[in-house]
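JOB MANIFEST
job_type = single_chain_structure
chain_count = 1
residues = 226
[input]
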Amino acid sequence: MRLRAEYLVGSDLKFLGNLDMMNLMSRAMRRAGIPFALSEGFNPHIKLSMGTVLPVGVWGDKEYFDLELTQDMDPNEFMKKMNHVLPLEMEIKQCVKIDEKEPALMKIINAASYTFILKLIDHGYFDISDRIMSQNELLVRSRGKQKGIDKDLRPGIFKITVNFQQESVMISIWVNVGEPVNVRYDELLELLEDYGIEREEVVDIFRSGNFIRAGNLFYSPFEKVS
């Protein structure tokens, strides 16, 4: 049996690396008495498949993992047991049973959204989406494997929304994950800076979603489960 879960990683845990996150999940599953399956070999590990890696320094509102079990388990029971042992800044928000042949999350997630929370300052935030999206190219210094070279983010940015709240502004940017252009949150920070937003104005950053993009539509990994 396989389960797919959506979970929250709160801001207090945003400096955990990917290996730390997997170890945290594994320990929680053992404490909760989850009947997880183990891999074969000399160093067996829980058959836990995380989604795209959450960057260190960024918290996540809608992260995902797949888990293989040795016996059937009600998804609601799994959520209840896990949430009882997870730290306060983590929560399983949704869980469903998926087919054994369902592709792994790393193979199907091809888009994400990052949200930047800014101090509400008298600033021209309202038209930043139009100013960025109207450009033919958006060059920044690459932060990925090819560090230091100019990288055009424009093919990998799909849409930008700006939401005003009482004392802050939320700028959400939907981007490509993986090939042909993998857009990183720190590259988006540089892009915003190029358009007049100072680093000191950014009070928080989180990944607000992971998606399966098909054309102009964005689906959650639950919506595409057949």
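[summary]
The chain has two domains: 2-107, 109-219.
The chain has a mean pLDDT of 92.
exit_status = 0
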